[in-house]
Every structure is written in structure tokens, then in C-alpha cells.
Amino acid sequence: MSKKILDPLKPIVALCKRRGFIYPGSEIYGGFANTYSYGPYGVELKRNIQNLWWKTFVQSRTDIVGLDGPILLHPKTWEASGHLSGFSDVLIDCKTCKARIRADHLIEQKLNMDVEGKSPEEITAIIQENKLTCPKCGEHNFTDARHFNLMFSTQMSKTNENEADVAYLRPETAQAIFLDYKNVVDTTRVKLPFGIAQIGKAFRNEITPGNFVFRLIEFEQMEIEYFIREEEWENSFESWLEEMKKWCSLIGLKKAKTQVKEHAKEKLSHYSKRTVDIVYDFPFGVNELYGLAYRTDFDLSRHSEESGHPLYWHDLEKKEKFIPHVIEPTFGVDRTILALLCDAFEEETLESGETRNVLHFDPKIAPIKVAIFPLMKKPELTAKAKELFQEVLPYFAAEYDETGAIGKRYRRQDELGTPFCVTIDYDTLEDNTVTLRERDSMKQIRIPIKDVKRTLLEKI
Ligand code: ATP
């Protein structure tokens, strides 16, 4: 009988905790659901992804500039963008076990029916007619369906008063970019078409968060709002789709695991004329990794109307003035991390029958590029190993380890996804050569110690 794996993410979640990639949030207080900390290796992985993204899409291009906008934006932003009225999911509560459930997900799972665009009343009727039951307790005992806004609200105290105004934590970074569109145009030399890029936190009061860092209530996005003339949208959309695919292969995601999924016209968000998702085959199913949307001129037009500041593009040569249209490629940082972990993780059975856990990260994004070991904890070996460690440290994220058996130290680095290990042994003292071990093949070669830095620079 085949062994049923209840939670396909379990080995990855365990490795992340054990090796300091990702810890459950507020653990000493018993945890705080669906929040996580990126530990010492997780934060390196995250930074490597963000830095590579910034280098690829901002620093290496002449048509995109960066921005770091606030998380709290003027509350009118969310009226104008449609988030206050429309950024909601349809929710039902199980009266028996108190589970909160997304009604559309329940209906899709049980009846394979898409209820996009249906009212809460129609959804309630479908649940009643089909006697749908709670996935947690099996009872058919639900509240009526109702809209649930996904924005987190917070109180801002007014100066000299006790009253408070409601403000919202941004549910996407995009709106901060639209609010500063005019500032960027007025203070830089950008020319249409151009983009504004941002990496930052977003918050959503998700009804059913979960699957580790796949669906969080606090997460990070890397987004570009790319401003164009309306007639350019189809070409621009296609070229951004290509850029997104290139990014997936740049970070080392397996091609066979990613696909492009077109959103049906009737399922498009209120602002979009075309949206595609780059989906990834996660262990819990194929799900959205990234999104690409043609947002038209919706956002800039709405903010122009609501703020009274027209957000035009002035073409002085052609003597034209118009509101640009927008193509938006959006990349979730946490989902990138999860996809990379799932892609890279392997429980490998070796010829000896032993198993080793390994993360086959692309060296570009691996948290640690090289680990340096003395074969044994003997002063003559440790001194030489530390010397080499100090030499490579300014060039690579490196680690020095002298604790325990050498095999165990290799296994630890395999689990961290470190592509190379260098060992100093007694031969090193004789002939100034070291062992360079490669993670995936586990092949070991001898190279002169003076060539270590150059060899690694060529490989990473
Ligand atoms: P989903 O359909 O999975 O809820 P979405 O279509 O609402 O996602 P977008 O609004 O397009 O997501 O957000 C852009 C990107 O932000 C997504 O492609 C994803 O990578 C990331 N993202 C969205 N919501 C979350 C979340 N709750 N936790 C982690 N990442 C998220």
C-alpha cells in the first residue's frame, strides 16, 4: 500500500525550521497564525532574490526607475482604486465548528462550478440547494454568504483629538506607485514608455491563508507599473510575458513546472482588460506564482478624478496630453521563495543506501556560496582554513565550520543549498592544494589554494 503523504510541504517546512530559513511567527507565545520570520538563511535567500530582481528590472534597464512608497496611503486612495468597494471575497462561517470558508472555493471544489460575479444571495442558494457540507466538520450548517473586505484597517489618531481616522495597510504596492507617478515624471528624465518599480510589503486579511508562505496575511511584492500609450498595450504585454518567463529561468525554476494561464474575460478584476498568471506546480497543486495585468488607464484616471490632480503625460513634441495606460508585471517574493524551495528540494537516495536532503539552488540565489572547513579541529588546519575564509569573505557569502565530522558538515551545507565546499587537510600544508566539493554531483577535485577565489568567481 502506498504511503499517503498528508501534507506534501511537511519535509520542506521541517527543513526550513531546522536550518534557519523560515520560523513560525511569535513562536514563544504559542505562535501567531500565518505569520513567519525569515531566519538567517531565509533572509539571505530573500535578499538575493530581491537584489537580482532589482538589478534585472531597474539597474540594468534605462526605462525603469525605482520607488519606495509608504504602506499607509491616504484613505481616499482605496476609494479611487475600487478596493474599498470591490476588494473582497465571499465568506461563509460554519455555525457548528466556526470554520471560516471561502464560498467560491467550496463550490468550486465540491461542484466544479465557477461563481465569479454571482451575488452573495445567489451563492447562498447554491450552497443550500446542493446541501454542501463543511470541509472541517462535515456539517451542513452555514451562515448566509457575505462579502468580506480583505484590507486590514488601522486607527490613526487625529492631532489634538481623541477621535481616530481609519487608515488601511496597502493590499498591493501598486497604488503607492500611482500616487507618485507625477512626482517621478516631474523629477526624472523618464520618457514614455517607462516603468516604476517597487519592492515592499502588502497586507491582506485572507479568509483562508495557508500552505506555508504561499498565502500570507503579510507578504512582499516586487511590482512594476509600466506606463505606455494605449495603442502599445498588446506588444508591451507580450514582451513583459517574455521578461517574466526569462526571470523564472534566471532564478533557476524548472521550466516544466511553470505555465502561463490566461484569465477568462468574465473573471478579470475590475481594472483589467487582460490578465495572465504564471502558475507553478506546487506540491499542493498548480497555483498562481506571478501575475501580469493590463490595467488600462483605470488607476491614473480614477486618482486624477478623486484627487483633482490630472495625471497626464505631456508629449511636448507631438503637443499631446493624455493619461497613460499601464501594464503591470507583479511578482510575489514569498511565493518565489516557496517555489524555489519546492523546486530545489530533493530527498536523494545515495548508492550507499543513505539519504541526503539537498537544496539544488542556482548559485546566484543560494544563501551561502561557499563553506570552508578544516578537515579536523587542529590548530595548523584551522589557521589555514580561517585565512582562506577571510580571503573569500569580501567576495561571497561564506561560512566557516570546524564542528563535527566532515560528512555531517557537508550534509548541513547540502541542506542549506551551498553550491561549494572547500576543505583544508594535511596535504594542504604540504602542497598548498585544497579539496573543492560540488554540491549536486558531490564530486571532489583538488585545486591550488591560490585558485579558490578565481575558480569560485567563475562558477557563481
Ligand atoms: P490569489 O489569486 O492567489 O489570491 P491574487 O491574484 O489576488 O492572488 P495579485 O493581487 O495579483 O494576487 O498579487 C500579486 C502577487 O502577489 C501574486 O501573484 C502573488 O505572488 C502575491 N500574493 C498575492 N496574495 C498573496 C498572499 N496572500 N500571500 C503571499 N503572496 C501573495
Layout of secondary structure:
Elements: H1 10-18, E1 22-24, E2 36-38, H2 40-59, E3 64-66, H3 76-81, H4 83-86, E4 88-93, E5 100-102, H5 103-111, H6 120-129, E6 146-149, E7 153-157, E8 164-168, H7 174-179, H8 181-187, E9 194-203, E10 218-228, H9 233-250, E11 258-262, E12 274-282, E13 285-296, H10 298-307, E14 313-315, E15 320-322, E16 325-332, H11 333-344, E17 345-349, E18 355-359, E19 370-374, H12 379-392, E20 398-400, H13 406-416, E21 420-424, H14 426-431, E22 433-438, E23 444-448, H15 452-459
Parallel strand pairs: 3-9, 19-20, 19-21
Antiparallel strand pairs: 1-2, 4-5, 4-6, 7-8, 9-10, 10-16, 11-12, 12-13, 13-16, 14-15, 17-18, 21-22, 22-23
Helix pairs in contact: 2-11
The structure holds adenosine-5'-triphosphate (ATP).
Characterize the structure shown.
With 460 residues, the protein is an alpha+beta fold. The chain has 15 helices and 23 strands. The protein has a seven-stranded mixed sheet. Strand 4 (88-93) and strand 5 form a beta hairpin. Helix 2 packs across helix 11 (333-344). Adenosine-5'-triphosphate binds at residues 172, 204, 206, 215-216, 219, 221, 288-291, 330, 332, 334-335.
How does the major sheet shape up? 7 strands, mixed
The CATH H-level superfamily of the largest domain is Bira Bifunctional Protein, Domain 2
Bound molecules: adenosine-5'-triphosphate
CATH class division of the largest domain: Alpha Beta
User: Mean of the pLDDT scores?
Assistant: 94
